[in-house]
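New here. Invent one.

***
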Amino acid sequence: MDNNNYQSMDVDGGRPVKMWTEGVPVEESARQQLANTARMPFIYKHIAVMPDVHLGKGSTIGSVIPTLGAVIPAAVGVDIGCGMMAAKTTLTASDLPDNLSGIRSAIERAIPHGMSPKTRHHRGRDEGSWHTPPAPVDAAWLTLKDEFDAICLKTPSLKNTNNYRHLGTLGSGNHFVEVCLDETNFVWFMLHSGSRGVGNAIGTYFIELAKKDMRRHVMNLPDQDLAYLEEGTEHYDDYVEAVSWAQKFARMNREVMMQNLIAAVRTVIKKPFETHVEAVNCHHNYVQKEQHFGRDVLVTRKGAVSARAGELGIIPGSMGAKSFIVRGKGNADSFHSCSHGAGRTMSRTEAKRRFTLDDQVRATEGVECRKDAHVIDEIPMAYKDIDAVMHAQRDLVEVVHTLKQVVCVKG
């Protein structure tokens, strides 16, 4: 297999950086972040960079960071286990009603989404959580509860999170639920979310703990958000346990949402249909132990998807753009990874400054979705060209299905 379409960036005093970014822009600030991370003493072989790479907190989004004997909590981030789920149905485009607003409304009723402004800074139930969680949430929570209780014995501050009421909910920002059509007009359901409030609490707690450890040992870091936990220490073991649980929560969160999404669509479309004809559920913000180049390595994918040979993954475009179901090629140099999306080209603040509501309406023509000032930061023009992103990673994945959304629900 030809692995030569990556670009190499040598880093003084650090490991090499291999970048699958041919034909896509990479901001200078992101290159500096990559160099900072590559200088950490526990990086294994090199850092792999996906074509959706852009500036993140501490480490770039769209990077794969293999480590030996240490983990960087801020590289995993606070939306632990964030990822995608997609399921093909036996419905076709002709089975959808001419007016899709009924489907969108049914989904919005079935899946809590968004966040109350007051709860961004204050504790309490927000509009994006359940008031009374339904039976599927209860059943799913029972599979998670005992392990969470054990984690709380070590970290009591996590007890007060909205974990149970957030299970099966969407959140806000770039999280979404979509109804899509593939290249042969079959209907797919697709959604994007993670570990919600409890993942944020776990990530934030251990990021601050790592920073305290660094200050205690007078570590000179190029960026304080590269603070790390060393293997064999109590905090390391506690973090690995907590982050593994948050990743289970995130996967279960998507499963419960998919159940409720399917049930919601059945209330509108009376024709019997099957789902999970083809289904994918994959993380793109996570850490796990894997074997690469003959060694057991801790691999952090910060905005990247596992793409082992034959493994299915999801690469969504922006709101209004194409998305892709892909099959991994098992590229060793990428640590068997691919991008997690198109990748932003500008901040949310800049997108709101630069674009208008009219721009948003034009960019999402043909999609039944919110068209208001609060989602301008998700406008397609704030993201990289998904076709260029896919071309840049042609050695990492092959396209199995091309999806185009017809309904999009955002928080």
About this structure: The two ends are 42 Å apart (CA to CA).
